[in-house]
Amino acid sequence: MTNEKEKDPENTRPAGHWSTWVLGIALAGTLLGLLYQGRQVASIRTDVAQLTGNQQRMEQLQGQMQAGLAMTKGEVNETLERLNQQVERNRKEAKTGATRAQYFARQQAGEVLNKLNAKDQEFDQKLTELKQSNAETTTEVGKVNEAITGIRSDVASTRTDLDSTTSELKRVTGDMGVMSGLIATNAKELDALKKLGDRDYFEFTLPRSAIPQKIADIQIALKRADVKRNRFTMEVLADDRRVEKKDKTVNEPVQFYTSGTRIPYEIVVNQVRKNQVIGYLAVPKTKTPLRSGNTEPLKAKS
Q1: CB 201 within 8 A of CB 193
Q2: Is residue 123, in this structure, part of any structural domain at all?
Q3: Boundary (domain end) residue, out of 106, 134, 168
Q4: CA distance 279 to 253
Q5: H/E/C letters for each residue in 124-165?
Q6: Number of domains in the chain
Q7: With helix as H, strand as E and coil as C, how does 46-114 read?
Q8: Which residues are registered as beta bridge partners of 179?
């Protein structure tokens, strides 16, 4: 058998050749596995490094957050403390203000009560004085009643005199042919006319002069006074017009119209003296406008 093996030596070569290949492949596989594992380890190390860095950053952020929270908590506590102090001050001030308000309210109430007491005392005093003067007042009222009775009697008497005097007053035709109002011939009758109130009356004493004298809203100038004949001549100025009333007699109504009236003015002379006359001017209270066709308001007869 030894010889057969020696005769075929090539039969042992293939077996050794395949072993070498197998071993090489195994080694190559091992190397590839080692390379893969190395890469895996490097990748793992990289991930571990990243995780470690992230964890450090997380820890840093957590530290910052904790520091921020601590600071915020401190600020909040400080703010709360200030608020508590302010609230306490406000409470004390409110309490003090309420105390002051109560004090002033009591003080004002006391003043009001004092004033009311003073008014009450004053009222009592006035009431006492009123009661004391009541008897005197009753006496005075009696006197007043007596005076009123006397006044009524005087009024009745005056009315009787006025009626009597009025009955003596006359209506005559004036120098313009117009029926006059009631005329007075003396001071008593003139006073009665004034009380009747139908016209406004202006008394005058008119001296002889070239310068007109203003009476009410007109002007009069005495030109001549004849004592023996009780006659006179005068000029009347009204509405920038001049009219001569010539040779008029005592107690004769001298009539003339003014602008815008239909009721005549009347001049009555009661006395003719040397160089003067005494009488009155009667002015209508109600001035009725002239008709549109009348262009000569101061129309007069001489």
Answers
A1: yes
A2: yes
A3: 168
A4: 11
A5: HHHHHHHHHHHHHHHHHHHHHHHHHHHHHHHHHHHHHHHHHH
A6: 2
A7: HHHHHHHHHHHHHHHHHHHHHHHHHHHHHHHHHHHHHHHHHHHHHHHHHHHHHHHHHHHHHHHHHHHHH
A8: 173
Asked if 41 and 139 sit in the same domain, the reply is yes
Cβ–Cβ under 8 Å, residues 300 and 243: yes
Asked if 29 and 68 sit in the same domain, the reply is yes
* Tokens read off for 68: 């921020």
Domain check: are 175 and 160 in the same one? no
Task: State the pLDDT confidence band at 155, using cuts at 50, 70 and 90.
Answer: low
Is residue 26 domain-shared with residue 159, that is, in the same domain?
yes
Nearest-10 crossing angle of helices 13-168, 187-196: 150
28 and 164 in a common domain: yes
Give the range of the structural domain holding residue 258, as residue numbers without chain letter.
171-284
Distance, in Å, from the CA atom of 193 to the CA atom of 191, rounded to the nearest integer, reads: 5
Confidence of residue 242 (pLDDT cuts 50, 70, 90): very high
- Flag the least confident range among 47-51, 163-167, 223-227: 163-167
In this structure, the answer to whether residues 80 and 220 fall within a common structural domain is no
Question: Given 147, 168, 189, which residue is the final one in a domain?
Answer: 168
From 236, 244, 232, 301, select the one nearest 273 (Cα to Cα). 232
The 10s digit of each residue's pLDDT in 43-88 is: 887 877 887 887 788 888 778 878 877 777 788 788 888 888 888 8
143 domain-assigned: yes
Q: What is the pTM of this model?
A: 0.44
176 and 131 part of one domain = no
Q: Quote the tokens at residue 150.
A: 């006397």
Do 147 and 62 lie in a common domain? yes
Q: How far is CA 172 from CA 183, 192, 263, in A?
A: 8, 17, 15
**Which residues, 6 or more positions from 195, have their beta carbon under 8 angstroms from its beta carbon?**
162
Place of tokens 């009001």: 112
> Nearest-CA neighbor of 232 among 241, 221, 218, 217?
221
Q: CA-to-CA distance for 223 and 216, rounded, in angstroms?
A: 20
Q: Is residue 66 part of a domain?
A: yes
